[in-house]
Amino acid sequence: MKTKALLVWLLVLVMASLAGCASSSEEGLLDGDVDGDGVEPMAYVVVSGGVAVKVGETLTLEAQTVNGEDSGYEWAVDDEAIATVDETGAVAGVAPGSAVVTATGVDSGKTGSWGVYVYTEPAPAGKVRVSGEVALMVGATTTLTATTVDGTDSGYAWSSSNAAIATVDAASGLVTGVSAGEVAITATGADTSESGVWGMYIYEPPVAAPVVAVSGGTSVLVGATLQLSAATEGGTDAGYAWSSSNDAIATVDAATGLVTGVAEGEATITATGDDTNVSGSKVIVVLAVGGPDAPFTEAWGGSAHARAEDEAFIHWNEDGAIPTGCAKCHSTPGYLDFLGADGSAAGVVDAEAPIGTVVSCVACHNDVTLTKDSVTFPSGETLAGLGPESRCMECHQGRESKVSVDTAIANAAPETVDTVDADLGFRNVHYYAAAATQLGSEALGGYQYDGKAYDMKFQHVAGFDTCITCHDPHTLKIRLDKCSECHGAMADQEDLKDVRMFGSLLDYDGDGDTTEGIYYELEGLREKLYAAIQTYALDVAGAAIIYDGSSYPYWFIDTNGNGQVDEGEVNSDNRFASWTARLVKASYNYQVSLKDPGAFAHNAKYIIELLYDSIEDLNAALDTPIDLDGVSREDAGHFNGVEEPFRHWDEDGAVEAGCARCHSSEGLEFYLETGVNVEAPTTNGFACATCHQDLTDFSQQHEAASVTFPSGEEVDSGSNTSNLCMTCHQGRASTASMNTALEGKPLDTVDSALRFQNIHYFAAGATRYGAEAMGAYQYDGKTYDGLFAHVGSAVQCADCHSVHAQKVKLETCVTCHEGVAGEEDLREVRMAGSYLDYDGDGNVEEGIWGEIDTLRGMVLTAMQAYATAQPAVDDIAYNGAAYPYWFNGAGQGYSTWTPRLLKAAFNYQFATKDPGAFAHNAKYVIEILFDTLEDLGADVSALHRHDEGHFDATGLPFRDWDESGAVPVACARCHSVEGFSYFAANGTDLTTTAEPAWGFSCETCHEGFSTGSRALEAPVKYIAAVAFPGGATINNDAGDPDNSFLCMACHKGREGKGTIDAAIAANSFGFKNVHYLAAGAILYGSEAGVGYEYTGKTYAGKWNHLGVSAPATCTYCHKAEAEEHSFEVSCAGCHGAITPANVETIRQNRAADYDGDGSNTEPLKDEVATLAEALYAQIRSYALDTLGHAIIYVGDAYPYFFNDNGEDYTSANKYAYFDAKLMKATHNYQISQKEPGAWAHNTAYIVQLLIDSIEDLNGDVSGYTRP
Questions:
Q1: Is residue 1037 part of a domain?
Q2: Among 141, 138, 129, CA closest to 179
Q3: Residues linked to residue 1006 through DSSP beta bridges, in sequence order
Q4: CB 910 within 8 A of CB 770
Q5: 326 shares a domain with 437
Q6: Which residues 6+ apart lie within 8 Å of 432 measured at CB?
Q7: Taking the alpha carbons of 705, 709, 710, 711 in that order, is the dihedral positive or negative?
């Protein structure tokens, strides 16, 4: 693939002036939280989208105006010989090469640019074929695959044409982008030595916009001057233009940046680059001469940092100095000593600090803190890359950790964890260890039990993720106004205790209340831990214990054993001393949860995990454990930050690009914005911003206009929420990826290059969309169910699942599925349309889950039998909890794959890893498993692959229009859910085409499903009248409705005597097809007029079965009970030992020999069949002898009647020599063939039509008996 190099920036931005950036700047000794004013941010246009497009294909770019508005954009491309772009931003690849696409705002006039790479795939050459990604970002990785055609390679050696642009792992084909440019990756077969080449384009990540940073002091006295300077990052400026937001407060020299104080107050000083036109600003505080020596003195003066009378500052007054172990956080000199700001060594307090000081301005605002960005915690863990919050964390980190607790226990070396040891003692985390709480397992501030996983840093929301964004850095108060934006009106800090987010919907303390604030969950769980500690201390350590949080050392002997703190018990001489290792750990975590009063906000989940594990550990030693039933340790699904889906990459330090979209809080948003997967930080699960744009009321989600499945198929569910879900719940492999890997390989030959392809977990979207997503392996020549539409009020993901609680909405299920009390009960659900025995076990009453579960077991058995029977194929075993899932007899990862076995393994995994597959699309999964068994050679004779009749989505009545994508108006009523629903509601047919349906659903015939409060027995839709094709109309009785009208709306035929006579009168001769199963029209006989009734003859009207007063509804004879909609004939009540299998043997109360064969006891069906054969013979004779052209009938090939000149049964060879007589006769013959129950629905009528047709064709009917 040869193209010119693309050397353009992928993203060119003109950034806005960042007004008020001095709020977080540390360029002087003073700091403020003051927003700038008077400086308008500059508007700029951002273009985003895909990077590479194939010649002849398109990709769509998007434009957005930041800090401004544009009603539209004008799109342009720099080289139309390479690519074109239309008014919507759709870029079409024209020829290999590179092009720059620009979008210019029609209102702002601002322009943004985006580089696009146009490529062609190389024509197959050689025996080794390489495939994979074409474009790769610098720093990202992707794995290419290779296959050998007409040969076998056990592996491949990979190489790069230019390692400066991209490297490739020689063994795995993992490509890493190094720098922008083009590169060729070669795979050489280990056995054939044949090579294949793949061209790739490596592109730079979107570049950051230029930023102008203003530095210098932050205050100046009235009349004095202050020199500021500016620097541009990400760009170059020859100089800067300086301005002041308020010349009455401070002026600035426009060329030099020299600020002069004019009057007391604040002013924003802005520098604008001469070349980039980007601005940066800084807030300057102008102080009055003789005024206070620092701003925010009043705010600071009311804070705990300034309260000189507090214990935190006077505790050492009697000693005369603050010891080195305490000076760092209880005096300004000690903190400066630790920082090294006093000239001493940094990282240690060298000398005692004098008493009488507080935490003053200079403690946090000095030359060292300007660049401070890391903190080392008591655990020894150092966290870097921090901002100003690192100053807070130095003291609010605690003084103990898991490491120090373990060290103390190891030093004491007790005999067991339950042995009292005098060398053990309580370890006190200290006060307000908020940073240790917030950072969770990254700081190891709590006692984390071995073998358990814990939440990392609590990632709040952007802009409020640090100490000083949630707390005012001077008053130390919580910024309640900011909290209120997301959490509702907050009058005071107490209101924060009632906060509970949608990702915290479990019951953590087991009190049954899942609406209380998360603070109270911690409180309830802490009470349980205290009870466990007291029980353990008495029963195991042998001494009763009590806790007093206001008195050191906090834990005391409960001398009277009443469990309460009483007078005289709280003193140092009565301190608790019967410590065991187990008790030290639990008491430490109890203290951790209490001594950070904001723990519920800083990292509630981490504290919950610590408390739960402490109780669980104590319970292991208790005869009567504390009850943890109903107590939840961690969240579900998306918010469970301690499980493998989010912790898998902890050792790597980041989630790789291929996994970041769905396994990090940032990856999904980035993918939706750019269409690209990039590496992302590890996180505690999803955050609010993962799915939501507007975090004030969460009303706006990130846009997911459609979903592209791994097969390449694109789907729009009609719901942005469902599209968001399916962006991840789609699987990672498909029929397409499997076919690519298996192309050209013999089905039963072991191929060492084959690897198991894992569909991945919870591919519910792929299951639900079935054949439309092609998520499972679909065998060639088979037809599969598509989207399972369910019912109107439960059709989208969020209709059935609580998106935050991660639970099925059972209250929705139970409205249709009686008896569903828990999720396990859903496995017993089986709908009336699923009446077949799919797994062949003879049980048609088990839930549909049971059918699938048995089929899955059969597939595994068949795989194992296949492996045993095939030469060179190892025995195979499956373990769903251990990667790579498939193992040989020695427990090693399976490697002797044949293509046939690999397909089976893929489908087995597909049916296994979506545990809700039975609800998402049972029929699709059943079809997949059936075909897998069949392909493996298993006996499927007792099984059923798919449904019948109305519910068989794979049959031609529903699949005939897949290619066109629309069911014509004339067919929509009876071949689509949409069409029939419209007819039932309006009494007329659709005027537009309908979407192809996947069989009929409950809503097709029943109503009440769209209300959300439907009854278990949904009423049948009322059809007021049925108009037959012959022109007759029959009306329903609204007072006593006949449900047969629902059936007859479709089972009425499409042609009749009226339409045939009209065609003959118009000299339009040709076959008129009654259509299929016109049972309603036959039942009503001459009242419907669907048969061709000859002039001068009389015909039977409606057949009333057992008499005029007997039930005449279709469902009287055809089974349509609530539990089974098989529509099988049920006649045993009157006809003795009659079953659906032998129903065609019925003959009762009929003495006539209709067909003249001498038997008046044969089944009525046989009477009709003989007459039909006679009519067919007469038709053939008439066509040849009278019309001069031989005719033949083929019942399964449209248009049924053909020239009898060979075996060409296509429309091109249709019979075209009809006259009036032949039209009438062929119509009646077709009725006899396409209404197989005509003998039962109206024997007299069908016999009359057949005899009269023979007679009209000049046949001899003297031997027949016409009723």
A1: no
A2: 138
A3: 1020
A4: no
A5: no
A6: 396, 595, 596, 597
A7: negative
**Angle in degrees, CA 1057, 1071, 1212, rounded to 5:** 165
- The answer to the question of residue 671 being in a domain is yes
pLDDT at 15: 25
User: For residue 494, what pLDDT is reported?
Assistant: 93
248: buried, middle or exposed (CB in 10 Å: 19+, 13-18, 0-12)? exposed
Report d(CA 57, CA 612) in Å as an integer: 56
Angle (CA) 417-418-422 rounded to 5° is 90
Q: What span, in angstroms and rounded, lies between the C-alpha atoms of 269 and 20?
A: 9
Q: Look up residue 120 and give its two tokens.
A: 């062609």
> Could you tell me the strand order of the sheet in which 258-261 lies?
225-227, 258-261, 250-252
Amino acid letter for position 881: A
* DSSP count for the chain of H helices, then E strands: 38, 43
3-state secondary structure of 118: strand
73-77 and 97-105 strand pairing = antiparallel
> Quick one: which of 942, 943, 859, 868 has its CA closest to 903?
859
Last residue of one domain, picked from the residues 911, 936, 961: 936
Smallest Cα–Cα separation from 1073: which of 1229, 1221, 963, 942? 1229
Which of these, 864, 874, 936, lies nearest to 903 by C-alpha position?
Answer: 936
- Listed residue (189, 207, 183, 61) closest to 134, CA to CA: 183
Q: What is the 3-state secondary structure (H, E, C) of 140-196?
A: CEEECEEEECCCCCCCEEEEECCCCCEEECCCCCEEEECCCEEEEEEEEECCCCCEE
Written as six digits, the tokens of 483 are 């909290």
Strand pairing of 877-878 and 886-887?
Answer: antiparallel
Residues 622 and 660 grouped into a single domain: no
Kindly state whether residues 594 and 715 are assigned to the same domain: no
- Let me know: does 198 contact 136? Beta carbons within 8 Å: no
- Structure tokens belonging to residue 831: 């709908």
Tokens linked to 1171: 């007459």
Q: Where are the beta strands (DSSP E) in 216-328?
A: 219-221, 225-227, 229-233, 240-244, 250-252, 258-261, 265-273, 279-287, 321-322
What stretches in the chain show pLDDT beneath 70?
A: 1-43, 67, 122-125, 206-209, 289-295, 1009-1017, 1106-1112, 1122, 1132-1133
Q: Kindly state the tokens that stand for 56.
A: 């002849």
Nearest residue to 155 (alpha-carbon basis) of 125, 191, 127, 194: 191
Range of the domain at 739: 703-936
Count Cβ atoms below 10 Å from residue 457 Cβ, excluding itself.
Answer: 23
The number of folded domains in the chain is: 7
In a domain, 1121, yes or no: no
| Residue 922 and residue 864 in one domain | yes
Q: What six digits make up the tokens of 258?
A: 């020299």
Q: Which residues are registered as beta bridge partners of 176?
A: 141, 167
- Give the end-to-end CA distance of the chain in Å, rounded to a whole number: 80
Q: What is the pLDDT of residue 206?
A: 62
Q: Are residues 627 and 731 in the same domain?
A: no
CA atoms within 13 A on the CB side of 717: 29
Domain-terminating residue out of 287, 313, 328: 287
Cβ atoms of residues 958 and 975 within 8 Å: yes
Q: Is 67 left (phi over 0), alpha (psi -120 to 50) or beta?
A: left
Q: What share of the chain is helix, strand, coil (3-state, %, to 5)?
A: 30, 15, 55
Half-sphere exposure of 766 (CA within 13 A, CB side): 32
Task: Indicate whether 965 belongs to any domain.
Answer: no
Q: Which two tokens mark 394?
A: 């130095």
CATH number at residue 79: 2.60.40.1080
Residues 462, 362 share a domain: no
Helical spans, DSSP H, in 319-478: 324-330, 332-339, 361-364, 389-393, 402-412, 434-439, 467-470
3-state secondary structure of 827: helix
The secondary structure of residue 825, as a DSSP letter, is: G
Taking a C-beta distance cutoff of 8 angstroms, is the pair 766, 750 a contact? no
Per-residue confidence (pLDDT) for residue 648, from 0 to 100: 93
